[in-house]
From TrEMBL:
Domain of life: Bacteria
Domain (Tryptophan synthase beta chain-like PALP) ranges: 16-308
Signal peptide: none
The keyword Magnesium is annotated on this UniProt entry: yes
One Pfam entry name: PALP
UniProt cofactor(s): pyridoxal 5'-phosphate; Mg(2+); Ca(2+); Mn(2+)
Assigned keywords, A-Z: Magnesium, Pyridoxal phosphate
Name used for this protein in its record: Pyridoxal-phosphate dependent enzyme
Source organism phylogeny: Bacteria, Pseudomonadati, Pseudomonadota, Gammaproteobacteria, Cellvibrionales
Amino acid sequence: MSINLSHIQDAYERIKPQIHRTPIMRSREINSLLGCELYFKAENLQKVGAFKARGGCNAVFSMDTESLAKGVITHSSGNHGAALAWAAALRGANCTVVMPENAPQVKKQAVRGYGAKVIECIPTMADRVAAVAEEIQATGSTLVHPYDNEQIIAGQGTVALEALEQLGSFPDIIITPVGSGGLLAGTAIAAHAIAQNSGKTISVIGAEPRGASDAWQGFTSGQRVENQVPKTIADGLRSTLGISNFSIITEQVNDIVLASEQAIVEAMRLVWMRMKIVIEPSAAVAVAAVMENREIFSGKRVAIILSGGNVDLDALPW
């Protein structure tokens, strides 16, 4: 299928009984500091501590019992793995997650805490894929790809669907972090369709670390970057852009902007201090991008998706 707004609306109805309707939060101090009107969609307060609960839940609850019988498997640096493990447990299915050995300990513990089996691997995409293939051959588990999966993308798009419903009036811009691209792709589909149906326009922007800028490079050149060696504190954004997501993003996203490592840490600290909520570095990337690209956001109403709050408290960046 080619994903459209109706798929995202169907996903929302499917997952609504299982997920939190996360709040929209505001900070007068941060608005004053950054010179724009920010509306923070707090997916750090979502089930499993991240928006990925939405995609994982939609994927698992879209499957028939026969497909679930031998369990599900994925690869993930953390939040998608936790989301799939949580959703699989709700349906009484086994779950296996291949994780890079350098994934944060708190994220490995979360995946195991939801009852999933964790297989650690060398932290490259090739090793992740190989470990998944080996396990599928041994067990017959059903692959739920972390980003090249239309049910995942539709589920992630429900963040924007919900946020626009809560806001009531349209923001000028929606900005989300971008790693593998499911959230940004789903957001672009939902936001543009909803705005168009109301005769409005919304600019959809992705935010990416400078040290893991494959999405920005691909968006700029028109050629998807297949391999990168990411160097960023934002562990949730170290993966490369998915094939399906790249296609959607190049067609429907208005821009991708970058954030430095210093700004990511500053943004994370700012949100912790001013808003008294815990966000992880990957979520802070969107805030950092606003800080470092003020000419784009100045004076605008901006919906900003805080993607997650799973932080290793023994390895804080300040």
